[in-house]
Amino acid sequence: MTMRPELRDLVTSSPQWDAVHWWRLEARAFRDHPDVQLALGRLAPPAAWRDLLPNRPAFVQPLLAIAQIASIVLPAVAAFVSVRAVVIEGEQLDLALVGAAMGVAALIAVSGILSQRRRPESVHPRTARLLGVIHLVSAPAVLVMAGMAFADDRVSGVWGVVGVLADLAIGVFFVVRYRRVPEDENRDNVERAARGLKRRIDGLSPGDAAAVLVEIGAAVDTLAERGLIDAATAARAQRAPLGFLAMTMTQPGQ
Questions:
Q1: Are 138 and 167 in contact (CB under 8 A)?
Q2: For 126-135, what is the mean pLDDT?
Q3: Helices (H) and strands (E) in the chain, counts
Q4: Does the global pTM surpass 0.70?
Q5: Among 134, 199, 206, 217, which residue carries the largest CB count within 10 Å?
Q6: Structure-derived torsion over alpha carbons of residues 7, 12, 13, 14, reported in degrees to the nearest 10
């Protein structure tokens, strides 16, 4: 089988072969399967990440990061604005604006929840619980300020309370869902990532799985022919489970 150009270039032009190269080899072999690449990226060292970036527009990843940050920042800002308007400045509270901000944060969080159902291995329990605490503290603070402003007839856009209640519900969900944090978080992260990778591999069609195995086999043969790996290493690489080549070849004692 003819290897894809990027994989052939890796195994024919590398002057030496080390642990990171195994990750790069596997990443390039799964170039047509971005879900598998993302799962590999949660296990791979940073030096291999450049080969594990999915083929997506360059602006997508920054937008996702901004959305995640907004889900954390918006509730806290909304709470601060409410406290400042009602307690510090004694001004009217625009609950519509505050509620809209918290509603957006809730929508982003809901989107994350739906995404987590497809990629549960991407969830870090401690981070998720912290996110829940932020929502759970901010929303009641806004509700208290809204109640005080309402009592003094200093509130507008009362419908904004819907967004606040939605954000409160999100906070309760995250705190309850992730109330337990693993004792060994690093080990838990690796185990979750490995389970996620196995799910992606199991989801490949038999034809796709066979094609990747054949291509990896050809790459390993080329490395052995070039003398970059010995016969025993080549044999071990050929026996590695699909999707776990790099882990098999780089784990101590393997």
A1: yes
A2: 82
A3: 11, 2
A4: no
A5: 134
A6: 80
